[in-house]
Amino acid sequence: MMPLAGRWLSSLAVRSGGHGVLFDCGEGTQIALREANWGFRAIDAICISHLHADHVGGLIGILFMLANSGREEAVDVYGPPGLVEIVKGQRLLAPILPFEVRCQELQPDERFSVGDLQLTCTQGEHLVTCLAYRVDLPRRPRFDPERARQLGLPVELWGKLQDGETVAWDGRAVKPEEVVGPPRRGLSLAYVTDTRPSDALASLATEVDLVVCDVTFGAPDDAARAVETKHMTFAEAAELARQAQAKRLWLTHFSPALPHPEEYLDSAWAHFPYTVLGHDGMRATLRFDE
Amino acid sequence: MMPLAGRWLSSLAVRSGGHGVLFDCGEGTQIALREANWGFRAIDAICISHLHADHVGGLIGILFMLANSGREEAVDVYGPPGLVEIVKGQRLLAPILPFEVRCQELQPDERFSVGDLQLTCTQGEHLVTCLAYRVDLPRRPRFDPERARQLGLPVELWGKLQDGETVAWDGRAVKPEEVVGPPRRGLSLAYVTDTRPSDALASLATEVDLVVCDVTFGAPDDAARAVETKHMTFAEAAELARQAQAKRLWLTHFSPALPHPEEYLDSAWAHFPYTVLGHDGMRATLRFDE
What we know:
- By secondary structure, chain A is α/β, with parallel strands linked by helices.
- Chain A has a domain at 142-182.
- Helices cover 24% and strands 25% of the residues of chain A.
- Chain A contains 10 helices and 14 strands.
- The first copy, chain A, has helices at 29-36, 53-56, 59-68, 83-90, 145-150, 158-162, 199-204, 223-229, 234-244, 265-269; strands spanning 12-16, 19-23, 43-47, 75-79, 101-105, 111-114, 117-123, 131-139, 167-169, 172-174, 184-192, 210-214, 249-252, 275-277.
- A 7-stranded mixed beta sheet of chain A has the order 6-7-8-11-12-13-14. Chain A has a 5-stranded mixed beta sheet with strand order 1-2-3-4-5, covered by helices on one side. In chain A, strands 9-10 form a two-stranded antiparallel ribbon.
- In chain A, helix 10 links the parallel strand 13 and strand 14 (275-277).
- The two termini of chain A are 39 Å apart.
- At the A-B interface, helix 1, helix 2, helix 3 and helix 4 of A face helix 1, helix 2, helix 3 and helix 4 of B.
């Protein structure tokens, strides 16, 4: 909520196959992206969890950064109802940009995609409407080129079959299962911030590789304040990750009243051992299973 | 215009006698203020040079920072015409604050004060209306208590005399010059950004202790681009400081195309030797003459 030196505001950047998605963009996000030395131009979508300044204040900087990088392709901004008005207010400072900014106010469970990434959202439980997001990168099943050659299938049809389409060849319908293996697990992550835990959030985050989760409060004693201000404690976030059967949990969004969040890790580990503390500039590469 | 890692956007904070004034507040200013460990609550006024995002984008963060610091006293925001609408747009993200935000669109040469600080502004020459500011901290003349006692003046009247008022005492008018010394030089600084140099700016900055000045462009060869985009080169800023007979010059607002601004210092020193490069977190204490 309040940036500290070395502990800035919320933003998560995801990139895959030349496409990028930003989740929230607190003040300073463009600076952090520069420090991370990421390509800026490929931010195709910005997903806002909720319309509080600490999650939106860096939007105008990001739009200018994209403009300065030479981007001309449209940028999609997704978020809860009210988004359009807020972006309009911000854009008084950037009325002219070399690309279109398309705002879309999302309904819970709405689906959209950015490149190969498939996204959806669920409503959390905060003081204002707040969306948690899930990203999936599906993985195509293994294709058996030997079998395809045996069937005499031309290479032009291989991609369609791998994508799950039945194709007509040699006077008959060739089904995908004749040349592709069983479904394969893709990659996924969930971004959950400024909300109480809920079954809907656990369901959104089912079996994701990574959950990035708000833990404004540390000690189990702070549970009452977490309820009151609609945030989570370390234990609650870890329990959410356990319930979702996620693979990993990153904790973030610590209250400025928690100068040493590591003191509370034990309370998270009791629920979910694959929990680590987030820090500015933290990054990971998610890879398909072997 | 674009923040780099370790070289953020424009902001200058001035404090005196418990009062604070911020000149511009680019994105990240609240973070820089925290890193500087300054008192946040005492920012009584924010003076915006012009309504470009790189000079205003951190405003909402500053307002939240002030709110979180417990401030309840009104905050004045000064700037060029158009300010009110821009602040209104920003405040969609902060509709409720524990203090009043009073916006005032300034005319050139308008005067206002913040505590003991006296401020004025002059219009620069930029792509949009841009104001340069001057701050003066006047110094009261030396008071001669021995002489005051000889005249039998009660202590209650001393302050008025030192402030330049004539007082009635013992059946006659006692003039300030009877008990105070000659006028004394105060302290002053000028904040000049995003503008071409001009005689009006040199006049605004006359004999200031410090000019903080935009130098977007480095080499004298870039003079044409400086003219086109309405900024200054190192040489032009130094010449402005010379013309103003300023004491010191800090250069700032380097273009991202100048990774090594020190390469151009020679061209500034040729005009004004008391020139240094600004850097993030730079600070100085100005003191009255001995």
